[in-house]
User: What shape does this take?
Amino acid sequence: MKARLSLLYFLQFSVWGCYLTCFGQFLGAGGLGSNIAWFYAAIGLVSIITPSLLGRLADRTGRPEKLLGFCHLLAAIVMFVMWQYGMTHQHLEFKIFYPLYLLFLALYMPTMALANTATFGLLTQSGHNTVTSFPPIRIWGTVGFVAAMWFVNSAYWSDGMLRFAFSDKADTGHLRFQYNAMQLLCSGIMGILTCLYAFSLPALKSVKSDLQNTVIKIPLRESLKIMFGKREISVFLIFVILSGVCLQISNGFVTPFITHFVGIKEYADSLASGNATMLFSLSQISEAICILLVGIALKWRGIRTVYAIGLLAWALRFLMLGVGNPGNGLWLLIGSMLVYGLAFNFITIAGHLYIQQVAPANMKGFAQGLMMFMSNGIGATFGTLAAGAVVNRWCQWQMVSTSGSDNVMRLFMGEWTYPWCIFAAYTFIVMLLWLFCFRKSNN
Assistant: This one.
């Protein structure tokens, strides 16, 4: 069972890894660079509604694995449409492309909570402890994400063949999938594979028989009262909102930030500048390593300390991005990638494990969806839009001739130090507030 669930997470996150971190580069090349914040805020917009509703539906039906498969199937179809549009339109129309992306996310984002619900249920049904068993399974999601990133960073299609390149100085370097719509095709293909695999998972018959009737009798308002009625949980969910922006800031702006060094003569020939997606993948490698620490840390120090460490790690990541560069400051860029493992796992993974422990037995799916609603919904939506305004204040997309090449690229040029330092200060303040406000109850 652990091996089967590990493969599920490998496929699940490869769908996202194909495009998420390099999507900003594709949007910039298509003329939508100033709207990057809106596209990453879209993750929050759809997370306000669909994850919690489908999580509740999963509780009612007792078949989260089937809902997971259907969502992946429909999301993949929409992604294929986006790929076709991107391949046939050099200039992307916001009014066409953005609604398509919203529809894709409305179908894909619930799969995060559904995969967690199915996994926790199958582990429990098989007699495994979720706190100790989940991190080694979830690590394969990170491996899938990294594998997808490496592929789109280097792969390109030329003369009817799949080829690979690692530098923009190569004549075909600008054809790599990280810069164009082919990243969307890769995502759609992985979505179909995930759909087929999800349908092969065992049914959660015990969940349905034990909890279905109970869940149906609990109205949505009553479910919210139960979750927010306990101060410990309500304070936690508020800080889930405040920390929700961090991941989307990272996903949306790190890759365009690294790539912009291609347009600076001093760093134009740096290997790091032309392989932003692969450099970013160090974050996921760190995530894969650090995820094994989550269960240990929660048992040792509890959610209060673990969450504070995660917020501090986000602050350090943003600060090192602000002062680093691909030259003598390359170690700072690498350091920001490595600290990501603590930042992501000690916030997101620890949060899901914590909410799984404190939620009532008949509301596990709803609780997972509610956390997605608070973090990827409210927090990511408003936080990412505000972060986008901060970045656009100091940085603008420009057509720049890259050193040693006849190619002209659209790059996100500007004074990047200011936005990163602002994000670092914000996260550090949230960490201090968390330590002051959160107190774990004894019962």
Summary: Confidence is low (pLDDT under 50) at residues 206-217.
